[in-house]
Write a structure and sequence with these properties.
The complex is a heterodimer.
Chain A (H helix, E strand, L loop, with lengths): L2 H4 L1 E9 L2 E9 L4 E5 L6 H9 L6 E6 L2 E5 L4 E2 L7 E4 L11 H11 L8 H7 L15 H14 L4 E5 L7 H17 L4 E5 L2 H7 L2 E6 L2 E7 H5 L13 E12 L4 E6 L2 E6 L8 E7 L3 E4 L10 E12 L5 E8 L2 E8 H6 L7 E6 L8
Parallel strand pairs in A: 3-9, 3-10, 7-8, 8-9
Antiparallel strand pairs in A: 1-2, 1-4, 4-5, 5-6, 10-11, 12-13, 12-15, 13-14, 16-20, 17-18, 17-20, 18-19
Chain B lengths: L5 H34 L5 H13 L2 H12 L4 H8 L9 H27 L2 H8 L4 H12 L1 H16 L3 H6 L10 H10 L3 H32 L1
Helix pairs in contact in B: 1-5, 1-8, 2-5, 5-8, 6-7, 8-11, 10-11
Classes of the chains: A alpha+beta, B mainly alpha.
Chain lengths: 363, 227
Amino acid sequence: MTELQQGLHAKLAWRRGALALDIDFSLPPRGITALFGPSGAGKTSCLRAIAGLERGGLGRISFGNQVWQDNAHRVFVPPHRRRLGYVFQEPSLFGHRSVSANLDFGFRRAGRPARVDRQGLIDRFGLHALLGRRADTLSGGERQRVAMVRALMSDPSLLLFDEPLSALDAPARSELLGCLESLHATLAVPMIYVSHNIDEVARLADHLVLLDAGHVVAQGPLQATLTRLDLPPALGEAIGAVIEGRVSGYDAQDQLIELEFSGGKLWLPYRREVVGQALRCRIGARDIVLTRMPMAGSSALNQIPCRILAMADADHPSQCLVQLDAGGSILLARITRRSWHALGLAPGGEVWAQVKAVALGMP
Amino acid sequence: MPLLSGEDLQALWLTLRLATTVTVLLLLLGAPLAWWLSQTRSRWRRPIAAVVALPLVLPPTVLGFYLLMLLGPHGVVGRAMAAMGLSGLPFTFQGLVVASMLYSLPFVVQPLHNAFDAIGRQPLEVAACLGAGPLDRFLSVALPLAVPGVVTAAVLGFAHTVGEFGVVLMIGGNIPGQTRVVSMRIYDHVQAGEYHQAHVLSLCLLLVSFVALLATSLLRSRRYARD
């Protein structure tokens, strides 16, 4: 059995109000897959259909060697038999129970499996002090942390996270994003993460499914998919490179860190990273300026030598998208057609990508 | 002259026994029924909900009359019971329990139905995704969240059974210790011109109703204060 056969396959069609959904995608059996797209694209409906919470869809869903839904053969496995870890957008704890009773709800029903590290999860998400509290006395961020640990403790075979950070304020959001990043490294089961926030997706996802108006418009590895030239304009600001590298230096005076990646080095604003840690950084297509020569006397801190791979029309007729290769990392730049012609650019040509460090701020 | 005669006390005791029995049985029967009504997408949902609500609008004497026909020695149920060697239900305590259950059914089912509806689907979906099957979800999530509705249902069912008259008249008759409930006794007293006894018994029912409503409201406010 190949790796892809072991993952999740979904091919479903249904209507939900004015939106006609017709989805077809396959997810790898490991890592985090982001289901990304604008509001109203049908992301949550997709997730609910995968969980079996929506029965309107016709088609087939399989996970590993189990068939969860197959309308042709009248197969439908109810949600409680799918071994899911679902985290809803609104933190939805059982208000009439304590935090520890909430955590144990799924844990107990899964038979308290030894492979679930109850104490470890409680420590990692900082829930120890909350265990005795009633769930309805917690703040939004605390509730969502409990909801995540509760899902993880139910020994799921697939995690489904539906915009878990979108209802939270900025500090709670950034704290939980950190928790999720640390979870990513140790995650033994696949996760589908629904979001319309590209920064969350850039930091967490390995694999990407782009949805627009109820249809899958692109899917594949995160970096390769976000730098494609044929993405629909509805994705707007989301398109651009995600650089993966390691923090190689810290300038305490200027409060900058240096990120080393396959295409060279980038200076970014310091945000409590430590030297040596892995780091992802998103470079939006609008944040890149192209020059033929390295520039002296520019305020842009980062200048990366690149080779032009391809050019394509952008959504506005005045603009084009330029795909660049920076030592194996793909970058995407949105520039005017006038500049493309004025600089005499062509595929195969050498250019310098100028990136302002302030554009690389993380959420 | 004693405040309550032996016969009055007997009627009072019978009424409380009847109302308690009916309330407990109705909660046991009504909870699954209300749960089904709140969850099902069956096309039978609306007709069945209408049948459950029927006693709300039906004159009690009509309900009692049909029950008498049905349960009597010539009725379908009465004949079936006789064939099984069971004694008839009309003019017995058991018959009164059955009739009262039908009569008070909507007063128990509707508060429960509303309470289950108010929970919304989210807590139940969360429970399902955490591995809880349908019965498990009902017992561990729906019922605990519907407790205020259960209390209301119990009080309404109890008070409504205490106050019934027409159904009792048709199916129970007026047999001391068997089917003579307080409301019948009050009627008898008034017919005989014994206004003093009628007053005392009426006051008893008034107090029972008042205490029941007060207790519910106190229970609920304590619950909300804790939340």
